Request: fold
Amino acid sequence: MQLRQLDGGVYVAPQISVSDIPALKAQGIRAIICNRPDGESGDQPGFEEIEQAARAAGIEARYLPVVSGKVSDESAVEFGSALDEMPGPVLAYCRSGMRSATLWALSQAGRRQPADLLAAAKGAGHDIGGVVRRIVNGGRTPTDTGDASFDIVIVGGGAAGIAVAASLLGRVKDQSIAIIEPADVHYYQPGWTMVGGGVFQPQETAKVMGGLIPKGVRWIKAAVAAFEPKDSAVLLDGCRVVKYRRLVVCPGLKLDWHKVEGLVETLGRNGVTSNYRYDLAPYTWELVQKTRRGRAIFTQPPMPIKCAGAPQKAMYLSCDAWHRAGALKDIDVHFCNAGGVLFGVKEYVPALMEYVRKYDASLDFFHNLIAIDGPGRRATFEVKAPDTEPSTVEMDFDMIHVCPPQTAPDFIRVSALADQAGWVDVDQATLRHKQWDNIWSLGDVMNAPNAKTAAAARKQAPVVAENIAADIAGRSATAQYDGYGSCPLTVERGKIVLAEFGYGGKLLPSFPKWLVDGTRPTRTAWLLKERILPPIYWRGMLKGHEWMAKPEKLAVDA
Reply:
């Protein structure tokens, strides 16, 4: 007998027998729902046998049979009513557990998010993607889908989505293109580090979404609920369906603030801040200006995260401000990193360590933030160093800059597009999906082993556009992505270590060493970050101008 939990009070299982009842009783099951019709198989015990044994054990039982492959809306409603009426925990069973899991998901569709239901069923070993459209429609079979259809659909209106749309417009003709994006505002997120360092004003990093969607591209202002790749369809909240001939997936990452206990309740006050949110970056600078003594903590969660250098950038700019104000000597600075290295590409570490020493910052490796008591000004870390027993450490703080844990959005992680880790599964050179050949992905949600930065998306967009254009023309992929990413590490106000690298940590500098030596802090790199990159982003990348981002030709084995 294999019990699989769907939620706190509902379990599913394959066909049970009378001999299983004592074990179910011992495990605390108080009610049983049978979703398998009697006589479906010759070796199947009848419901009456199960019911008698259950009742003798003090377990309530109910018969709600459903023919395999014919789960009706009415059956789902009846199943939901049974869950409401019967004492829990409840075990539902059928031949394999699939019908029971489907009934549960449909019955809960109006109460919980589709991604949560799909994830719970998947965790119990059941893929219920076949009824995702009904789940999105509140558990009911849609009667009028009102489909829209486009040649190319792009999911996500961030840097990657708008850039690839603009690059496509320069390559393909007579193709209808749509971007699905629910947000009204588009943010230049690389600028938030500078806001937190008192260099940029927050309004410089935000523009109205409608003014950035390329002319000729349809903007569908909606959130994605699920994918149906077998039917080349994207399901939106409200069960609207958008069909596509080719799909590009680039919705960005989910910032999982709730994964740190107590964090959401104290963000923006009690000295708790983060440059990973538009509204909080100004608070970072406010805290830096006010803090003149005590302890300042800067955290970095387990990888992957957006711009792996951003957590330490906040530390360097803050320390530089305190150094200039003569306050640094009275501030105990800690960089608490869940990983075991300061930066993943070793060539840049020596220059960074010079600043760690200059600012007298403590490097606390293998420290993962798990809880914050804002009013008490106390942070709790789980410490998992190699060859040592895991432990927890508490640290008091006067100011703490938090980098939140990050993951792919829920609707990506539970979809047929994702790999085992929840990221869109692509070929790392062509960025085409490994299973669905009319789907491509770029930006932060795909599983190529590159740094998740806007600079990476700037290089990826032309590659995807070039390969989609080749596909439309009936040709094989022609462009490849080399894993390029860039992380301008703001080690002090006026100087940057410009880290540029590709797959395997290979250094990929954009400039000759005499102009910008990326392994050393330079004023030139700072001017690039402060003066040049923002207009390149707004007026170049998002407009389809591929300055220093022309796609590399795909290498073909001889």
About this structure: The chain is about 25% helix and 25% strand. The mean pLDDT is 93. Residues 257-406 form a domain with the FAD/NAD(P)-binding domain fold (CATH 3.50.50.60). The longest helix spans residues 454-472.
